[in-house]
Amino acid sequence: MSTVDELDPATRGGLAEAWGLSPHTGFAPLGNGLINRTLLVTDDGRRRVLQCLNVNVFRDPALVMRNCRAVTAHLGRERAAGRYDYSVLELVPTLAGEPAAVLADGSWWRMYDHVPDTATHETADAPSLAFEAGRGFGAFAAALAGLDRGIVGEVIPHFHDPAKRFATFREVLAADRAGRADDAIATCDTAAQAFEDLLAHWRTLLDAGLPWRITHNDCKLNNLLFDDADRAMCVIDLDTVMPGSALFDFGDMCRTLLSPVPEDSTDLERVKPRPDYFAALARGYVEGTGSMLTQLERDNLAFAARMITGVIGLRFLTDYLDGDRYFRVGHPAHNLERARNQFALYAALTAQADALQALVPDPAG
Ligand SMILES: Nc1ncnc2c1ncn2[C@@H]1O[C@H](COP(=O)(O)OP(=O)(O)OP(=O)(O)O)[C@@H](O)[C@H]1O
Ligand SMILES: [Mg+2]
User: Fold this and answer.
1) Of 356, 223, 235, nearest in space to 298 by CA
2) Ligand 1 atom closest to Cα of 112?
3) Would 365 be classed as within a structural domain?
4) Per-residue model confidence (pLDDT) at position 31
5) Residues 147 and 104 in one domain
């Protein structure tokens, strides 16, 4: 994790110049985000959040910032019109009126107002948190339904696309650059079988006109700020907001909220969806999205859970085969263990798909 001391004088000077910060400004690390570097900035008692964009992940930071500006401006208008009841991240432009500052070393920085009196949760220990997450991310997607899709660009092409992820997996498996294919053969077989079924159903959904929307695409619990009564207050981490399917967002919430153990647990007996969490999440999402979801989307919420669990499981497996280039690992088999965990969850979600889908409420109910 970054510390204040690592903010070198040139960076500090560049930031101060870009935003007109006083020499007394304090910088402190904030949160435990994995992608960008996040600092709390205190200047004259005023708190702001400064982030250095990870340009290895976001290859087109200018596009990320155009998206952030369009999305926050639209949500602000929706809130002002009484159609969105959550707080909205507010970008603080540079003195030159830009949404981000590019420093002499090429680093990209942007600033948001700090949302006061809030905290994040790393894990859900009550179904009520799953309800809040579903409602919060659901309302976020519904509020963006009125924003022209052409205005928000594809920041990471094919991010959750199961067909593209499977094609990449097959290429990496065939190349076997890290010489790990033999160790992973059973998991690769499981993945290939899962994807045969999953891709066939995904294609039927695309053929049936599954809507393309503006979605968040990183609906982890810790990308929501909660108040001290554990009500969701504000959706954060807008860097991956781009065109996608509602099934991506709902599926990723299921993947991260339903199992009682973390995604790298090797205690596979315990890797199972908790139906009460699914019921609460679905109730929150249906309530938050209001009239947005089509019948096709609603009928496929349990499918979404296993699809995204399969996609992320496949990405862990692909990264293992490729020598751990993307996901940070603590030990050599870490990505393989994550993949096994996710495919165990996939199997349990598949076995329980009908029972889970039956828990999805009608929009009016
Ligand atoms: N506007 C804000 N107000 C208060 N806290 C914030 C704000 N923005 C970010 N945070 C805190 O900083 C943390 C990291 O922010 P963010 O999720 O944007 O970073 P990230 O590196 O993109 O995260 P991830 O690893 O999820 O991709 C959050 O979890 C939250 O604790
Ligand atoms: Mg985050």
Assistant:
1) 356
2) 1
3) no
4) 85
5) no
Mutate to test the pocket of ligand 1, among 55, 225, 241, 253 (most ligand atoms within 8 A of CB): 225
Q: Please indicate, yes or no, if residue 364 is contained in any of the structural domains.
A: no
- Ligand 1, atom 31, residue with closest C-alpha: 31
Same domain, 223 and 174: yes
Residues 142, 68 share a domain: no
Residue 285: both structure tokens together: 């999402």
- Condensed to tens digits (0 to 9), the pLDDT of residues 280-338 reads 999 999 999 999 999 999 999 999 999 999 999 999 999 999 999 988 899 999 999 99
Q: What is the pTM of this model?
A: 0.95
Q: Among residues 89, 113, 137, which one ends one of the domains?
A: 113
Q: Same structural domain for residues 167 and 275? A: yes
Report if residue 68 sits inside a domain: yes
Q: How far is the CA of 28 from the centre of ligand 1 (A)?
A: 13
Q: Is the CB of 226 under 6 A from ligand 1?
A: no
Statement to judge: residues 262 and 169 lie in one domain:
yes
Which residue, 49, 38, 57, 247, is CA-closest to 137?
Answer: 247
The gap between the terminal CA atoms of the chain, to the nearest Å, is 46
Residue 43 has pLDDT above 50, yes or no: yes
Question: pLDDT tens-digit profile of 211-241?
Answer: 999 999 999 999 999 999 999 999 999 999 9
The predicted structure's pLDDT at residue 2: 44
One domain, residues 249 and 351? yes
Q: Please indicate, yes or no, whether residues 109 and 131 belong to a single structural domain of this protein.
A: no
Nearest CA to ligand 1 atom 14: 33
Q: Which protein residue's CA is at the shortest distance from atom 20 of ligand 1?
A: 33
Q: Residue 276: which domain range?
A: 127-357
Residue type at position 155: V
Is pLDDT at 1 greater than 50 in this prediction? no
User: Closest Cα partner for 233 from 224, 244, 243?
Assistant: 224
pLDDT of residue 97 exceeding 50: yes
Does 288 lie in the same domain as 179? Answer: yes
- Looking at residues 199-204, what average pLDDT do you find? 98
> Is position 212 within any domain?
yes
Residue 335: CATH number of its domain: 3.90.1200.10
The Å distance, Cα 237 to ligand 1 centre, comes to 6
Distance from C-alpha of 276 to C-alpha of 149, rounded to nearest angstrom: 34
Q: What whole-number distance in Å separates Cα of residue 32 and Cα of residue 81?
A: 33
What is the distance between the alpha carbons of residues 27 and 49, in angstroms, rounded to a whole number? 9
Give percent above pLDDT 90 in the chain. Answer: 91
DSSP state of 210: P
